[in-house]
Every structure is written in C-alpha cells, then in structure tokens.
Amino acid sequence: MTSTDKQHIFFVDDEPNIRKAVHKTFERAGYCCTCFDDPDAALKQLRRSKCHILITDVKMPQMDGLQLLAKTKKIRPSLPVLVITGYGDVPMAVKAMKTGASNFIEKPLDTRSLLSAVETELKPRRRADTTAAKPLTKAESRVLDLILQEKSNREIAELLHRSTRTVEDHRLHIMNKLDAHNLVGLIRKAASMGLFKVPPK
Predict the structure, then answer these.
(1) Which of 16, 86, 100, 170 could serve as 143's disulfide partner, Cβ 3.0–4.6 Å?
(2) Residue 147 contacts residue 77 (beta carbons within 8 Å)
(3) CB 85 within 8 A of CB 32
(4) Residues 69, 163: one domain?
C-alpha cells in the first residue's frame, strides 16, 4: 500500500511524548499519521489536506479539544472525531457527544483500545456483531452501572478489585451487546433504555 492509499489520521496533543508514541503506533498499524501540537495548525491543514479521522486531546493550552471539535465540524461536518482526555467522565462524554464526537477515550491511552476505536470508525463494516443482543453478565451489569455513575475505568477497577484491562474488556463487551460501540453510543443506548438521563444543555 502506498502512502497515498493509506487512511490519514490527524492527531492533536500538546504533549510531545504522547504524539511520538501515537505516531509510531499508527504508522506501524499501516496508517498515515500527522501530529499537531497546535489545534489551529490542525484546522488549517484540515482545509487543504485529506484526513479520514481526527483525534484530539481535551486539555490543551491554546484551544481545548471540544472547541477544536466544534470548529472541525464546521469545516468537515462528516469527519469522525475521537476525543481523548485524562479526566474522562460521563458529563464530559455527553458534552463531547452533543458537540459531534464519534467516540470518547480516556488516558492513559491503551494501544489496543485506541486502534480498535479508529478501526471501528474507519472500517465499520468489519466490526464483529456476534455478541450483539446477548444479555449482560452480572459483572458487565455492575460495570455498566458504575459507568453510568460517572466512574472512570480506573475507579471501576478499584471498586471491583479487578485490573483496568479487565474493566476495559467488560466495557467493550457491554458496548457490543448493547450495539453501542463507543461511550457516546453507550450513553445514548442507556438513555433510550431509561438507565441514564442525558442532562439538558
């Protein structure tokens, strides 16, 4: 596959070590990745270059990720945008959802989860739906309850005395079974089931 055939990812984060690690991860996975430390530079590049998905941190000094998301949607309304934060919770996810985010991912970034989220957005037809419509296990129901109580993966792991990786796996299974596939979709699904009321703007 040539560089022109590769799907192009724009990644925005003000931390150089994270940009370097993410760039290496995506390039090794066969994507073309352009990293930015300045949201304005990313917006300028969006106006003149091909991009298949934008990934942005929330906490940045020049412009926060939700502001970048809103401006991106004015330039490229259909472009998938993943929002990454070290302070992730349900209210932030709801706000990102209302602004147009496709997914919401917590730091510290897990390579497998990050690549899975990108794969889901860029190649949705490859997504396996074999677990859809199956009932949640007791453990998954407990994890879902804690997610809807605004607990992070790390907090859930501590409360349930499980590893963060185990919680992430439960979360993935929950999303597949509820046919949600990302935190935004999970909130929508939970709201439709009466499990969680999305607060008004």
Answers:
(1) 170
(2) no
(3) no
(4) no
DSSP state of 135: P
Q: Which pLDDT score is estimated for 129?
A: 40
Q: Lowest mean pLDDT: which of 33-42, 62-71, 187-196? A: 187-196
Q: Are 42 and 36 in contact (CB under 8 A)?
A: yes
Sequential DSSP letters for 37-63: S-HHHHHHHHHHS--SEEEEES--SSS
Q: What is the mean pLDDT of residues 99-111?
A: 82
- pLDDT number for residue 126: 39
Using CA atoms, how far apart are residues 4 and 16, in angstroms rounded to an integer? Answer: 26
Q: List CB contacts of 193: < 8 A, sequence separation 6 or more.
A: none
Q: How many domains does the chain fold into?
A: 2
Phi, psi of 9 (to 5 degrees): -110, 130
Residues 6+ apart with CB under 8 A from 8: 31, 32, 33, 34, 49, 50, 51, 52
For the full predicted model, state whether its pTM sits above 0.70: no
Q: How far is CA 35 from the centre of its chain?
A: 17
The boundaries of the domain holding residue 159 are 138-192
Q: What count of other Cβ atoms lies within 10 Å of the Cβ of residue 63? A: 17
Whether residue 182 is predicted with pLDDT greater than 80 in this model: the reply is: no
- Within this chain, do residues 31 and 100 fall inside the same structural domain, yes or no? yes
CA-based nearest residue to 68, from 51, 112, 31, 89: 51
